[in-house]
Predict the structure.
Amino acid sequence: MRGFTISRRAFTLIELLVVIAIIAILAAILFPVFAQAREKARATSCLSNTKQIALAVHMYAQDYDETYAMSLYFVAPNVWVSFYDAHVPYVKNADILRCPSAPMEIDWPGMIQVLTGGALTTPGNFRYASYNGNYALFEDGNWGAPLGRNTAVAPIRMAELQYPAETGAFYDGWLDVEFYSPIAPRHSEMVNCAYATVMPRS
């Protein structure tokens, strides 16, 4: 019986470099595709959130004689209530206020603490939000009262809106302590928006 040997040859450096280069090219092609697919899924989830928020805005207005919530108002002795707090009971899950692409964009209680030096608190219904509101739709309440300013005006009623289907309520955005609130195009340069009617758009 004759024995035999198996010849084993190692990869050369050139062959290894070629394999590595092919893997790198495939990764460069596929990773952006995966990232786009992931962002598309997040945008879809965000659009669902904005639809739920639009429904909450609509339900709130129906419960309060077709009047929209105020953006911010003061409740003695030291609590600031926002339009977020007004709509949380209608969404049941405060995480709906968080966009998957930027789930901690706005730290609302933390911002109030910084803004007032710890003098005021929030109701604690939620912490993080990713959507900002239209301050032309949600009028100011007596939000400056504890700081010596009272700019309360009458809340806006649904019948006052000439173009409700074109009036944004909540949108992808961020907010700082100066209440600077730009739009944030998070989803491939697109923005999701909940309008004063129930239909969301991106």
In short: The helical segments are 13-63, 83-91, 108-116. The first strand starts at residue 72 and ends at 75.
